């Protein structure tokens, strides 16, 4: 998503165009959005439960790459334009079976480290999510109950 193109002010919804892996797992793309000095990571509030998460969501069939999906999710959920700097790789599902639901089924996560180039004041999910810059230590504490998100954070190059 180039910064010059018009970005939609409406989030995609539903799973009609969702990609799935060979074991039926939902393919999810996400971003670890860092400040330019790499001292801070931007977390967003979860809409499903209390607490903080990294921007992430389903990789859809009309998106050529997981990177495209990750950048779209960063825009929709956090209102940020990012430049991807590293592929942090695939992260398997780490949630316990009792944490999985029909709304949050088993997933395979593909995370990317990115530098936030622009943080908009208005974005598609601004009315249902807040966002907050955190240090590595603060983010580790905020993501403590989400091992797959902690894994992505630990793989990034931000200052510890």
TrEMBL record:
- One Pfam short name: NUDIX
Gene Ontology cellular-component annotations: cytoplasm; nucleus
* Cofactor(s) essential for the protein: Mg(2+)
Lineage, top-rank taxon, reads Eukaryota
**Chain intervals for the UniProt region annotation (Disordered):** 1-22
| Annotated keywords | Hydrolase, Magnesium, Metal-binding
Fetch the InterPro entries from UniProt: DDP-like_NUDIX (IPR047198), NUDIX_hydrolase-like_dom_sf (IPR015797), NUDIX_hydrolase_dom (IPR000086)
* The keyword Magnesium is assigned to this record: yes
The molecule here is called Nudix hydrolase domain-containing protein
What Gene Ontology terms for biological process does this UniProt record contain?
Answer: adenosine 5'-(hexahydrogen pentaphosphate) catabolic process; diadenosine hexaphosphate catabolic process; diadenosine pentaphosphate catabolic process; diphosphoinositol polyphosphate metabolic process
Against PROSITE patterns, the record matches this protein to: NUDIX
GO molecular function terms noted in the UniProt entry: bis(5'-adenosyl)-hexaphosphatase activity; bis(5'-adenosyl)-pentaphosphatase activity; diphosphoinositol-polyphosphate diphosphatase activity; endopolyphosphatase activity; metal ion binding
Domain Nudix hydrolase, residue spans: 24-157
Q: Does the keyword DNA-binding apply?
A: no
């Amino acid at each position: 998503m180039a910064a010059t193109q018009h970005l939609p002010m409406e989030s995609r919804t539903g799973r009609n165009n969702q990609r799935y892996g060979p074991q039926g797992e939902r393919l999810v793309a996400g971003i670890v959005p860092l400040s330019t000095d790499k001292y801070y990571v931007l977390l967003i509030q979860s809409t499903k439960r209390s607490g903080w998460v990294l921007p992430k969501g389903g990789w859809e069939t009309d998106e050529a790459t997981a990177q495209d999906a990750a950048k779209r999710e960063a825009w929709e959920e956090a209102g940020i334009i990012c430049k991807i700097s590293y592929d942090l790789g695939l992260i398997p599902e780490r949630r316990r079976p009792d944490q999985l639901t029909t709304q949050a089924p088993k997933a395979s996560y593909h995370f990317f480290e990115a530098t936030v180039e622009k943080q908009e004041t208005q974005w598609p999910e601004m009315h249902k999510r807040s966002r907050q810059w955190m240090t590595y230590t603060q983010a580790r504490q905020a993501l403590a109950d989400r091992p797959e998100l902690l894994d992505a954070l630990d793989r990034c190059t931000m200052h510890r």
